[in-house]
Amino acid sequence: MSSTTLLLGVAGGVLCGASLVGALMIGFLWWQANQRSRRLGSSLGYYPATMEYVPPPNSELLTYQPGPSPSIPAPLVAPNPAGVRPGSIWLDGVGGMVAGQRIMITREESVLGRSGVCDVQFHDPKVSRQHAKLRLLDGQYHLQDMQSTGGTYVNGKRITTHLLADHDQIRMGDSVVIFRRQ
Questions:
Q1: How many other C-beta atoms are found inside a 10 Å radius of the C-beta of residue 68?
Q2: Residue 176: is its pLDDT beyond 60?
Q3: pLDDT of res. 87
C-alpha cells in the first residue's frame, strides 16, 4: 500500500468520522429542542401530542366585548401659532419631505425649488431646481410656476399663475404645503 493511499484512507476515515459525529450532534440538539418545546407547551396548557390549546380546568375564557367608543376631541388650533406675528406669511408642510415643517416667508418675492440658490428649498427629487415663484403684488400673494417639469398644483389643479388665499394647498413634486396668512 502506498503512502498516498494510506493518507487518503486516513483522511477519509477522519472526515467520515467527523460527519458522523456532526450528524449525531445535530440529531441530539433537535431532540433536546423538541423535548424543551413539549415541556414548555404542556406548562402553557397545550396538549403535547398535537400542540393544540386545551384550557386549564376551572378557567374562564376571556372574550372581547366592545363597549362604547370614546369620543376623540378635535385638535386645538392655536389662534396665533408659535413664531407667527400678525401679517406673517408661511407654508405649513403636510406631505412629502416637508411634512411637519413650518416655512416662514419673509420676502416680497421668493423662489421655491430644489436648488441651493432658492429662497425656499425643497429637498424633493421631483421638484425642479427653480420650480415656482411666490410674489407679493398689490397686497396679495401670487404663485407662478417657472416652467417646472412636474408642474405646480394649487388645490389639485395645475396652474401657471394663481392668486393665493389662506389655506390653499400647494403641491410641487411629492411635497405638499398649505399657504397661510395671518
A1: 5
A2: yes
A3: 76
pLDDT at 113 over 90: yes
- DSSP states of the chain as a string? --HHHHHHHHHHHHHHHHHHHHHHHHHHHHHHHHHHHHHHHHHTTEETTTTEE-PPTT-PPP-----PPPPPPPPP--SS-TT--TT-EEEEEEEGGGTT-EEEE-SSEEEEESSTTSSEE---TTS-TT-EEEEEETTEEEEEE-S-SS-EEETTEEESEEE--TT-EEEETTEEEEEEE-
Q: What is the mean pLDDT of the chain?
A: 77
Answer yes or no: pTM beyond 0.70. no
Query: How far is it, in rounded angstroms, from Cα 131 to Cα 91?
Result: 15
Residue 10, number of CB atoms within 10 A of its CB: 10
Spatial CA neighbour of 89 closest among 178, 175, 172: 178
